[in-house]
Amino acid sequence: MAEARIIEGRALSDAVEAEVAAEVARLKAEHGLQPGLAVVLVGDDPASQIYVRSKGERSLAAGMHSETHRLPAGTDMETLLALIGRLNADPKVHGILVQLPLPKGLDERRVIDALDPAKDVDGLTLINAGRLASGFPGLTPCTPLGCMMMLRDVHPEGLAGKRAVVVGRSVLVGRPIAQLLLQADCTVTIAHSRTRDLAELCREADILVAAVGRPRMIKGDWIKPGATVIDVGINRVPFDNPEKAAAGKTKVVGDVAYKEALKVAGAVTPAPGGVGLMTVACLLANTVQAAKAQAGL
Ligand code: GUN
Q1: Which of 116, 120, 122, 255 is catalytic?
Q2: Residue with the nearest Cα to atom 2 of ligand 1?
Q3: 226-284: per-residue pLDDT in tens?
Q4: Is beta strand 36-42 parallel, antiparallel or unpaired with respect to 65-71?
Q5: What is 64-95 written as a DSSP string?
Q6: Which of 6, 191, 258, 263 is 20 to 30 A (C-alpha) from 107?
């Protein structure tokens, strides 16, 4: 069998970001409206620092207003909620993203639900999650949106009737992508750490989404020949090369055993270089959507 098609994130995310930039330019010229994104980072988690920098740079590159609020790890709830209150009231800011995970001691749910749902460009408030689960329009989490764009690109014939298995039930990815697949008329199963016969279940999937956070957990023989595999995992592991591993060097791998998947799947996303690139592009698109809705456009 031929090797799987590799679903590159770069070309698609570039296309989305170019569309966003064109729409930002149009909104500025025709309506005097500059979409604005505020990113809030609490603490010094190294991976979060990288993501947050990229979110700031990409929003500026698209012509948007961008601000990043960095708070120390010891920040208390009151201070964080006060900042969110100010951003909710700031007319320059149309989208607010609080980078997760928050340091221990902060109540993530309370912080997220302090966001004005109209500015919740991550789609994580209970209001937006409830809208998604009920099939009403709202702001949708960025990573799941990016996954759906990739799936639509691979399947121009449509997704209706396909068997989809989502491995992972997180609020950030597993649950919302299951909802989006359902909206696209897939038959959806959500698998998790207590699922029995996981490998067998995965082998039934026309579309397999891996979002568990376990390096290379999904093996080649868990994949139905010809299936489309979306790997959301970003896991840091030691290098396979013993010398590099001994030097403490690490690399990023997904939740899917990629080389094995290439031999079985019809299409597969690389990790890194796949879904991750789509997340930021969709964040920018959500910010434009939020700005237009707030301006009544
Ligand atoms: N941390 C990792 N991914 C995400 C995301 O999509 N949104 C937020 N807020 N935090 C994250």
Answers
A1: 122
A2: 100
A3: 999 999 999 999 998 899 999 989 999 999 999 999 999 999 999 999 999 999 999 99
A4: parallel
A5: -EEEEEEE-TT--HHHHHHHHHHHHH-TT--E
A6: 191
pLDDT 10s digits, 22-46: 999 999 999 999 999 999 999 999 9
228-231 and 267-268 strand pairing: parallel
pLDDT in tens, 252-264: 999 999 999 999 9
Pocket residues for ligand 1 (CB within 6 Å)? 97-100, 122, 142-143, 172, 279
Whether 3 shows a pLDDT value over 70: the answer reads yes
- Residue 142 Cα: closest atom of ligand 1: 6
pLDDT value at residue 1: 65
**122 noted as active-site residue:** yes
Give the chain's length.
Answer: 297
- CA-CA distance, 79 to 71, in Å (whole number)? 9
- pLDDT band of 2, cuts 50, 70, 90: confident
User: What separation in Å is there between the alpha carbon of 29 and the centre of ligand 1?
Assistant: 31
| Nearest residue to 232 (alpha-carbon basis) of 180, 173, 178 | 173
Q: Which domains, from first to last, does the chain contain?
A: 33-116 (3.40.50.10860), 142-275 (3.40.50.720)
Instruction: For residue 181, report the phi and psi dihedrals to the nearest 5 degrees.
Output: -65, -40
Query: Of all atoms in ligand 1, which is nearest to the CA of residue 173?
Result: 6
Per-residue burial over 218-256, b = 16 or more CB atoms within 10 Å of its CB, e = otherwise: beeebbbeebbbbbbbbbeeeeeeeeeeeeeeeeebbbb
Cα of 6 from ligand 1 centre, angstroms: 24
Say whether 55 is catalytic: yes
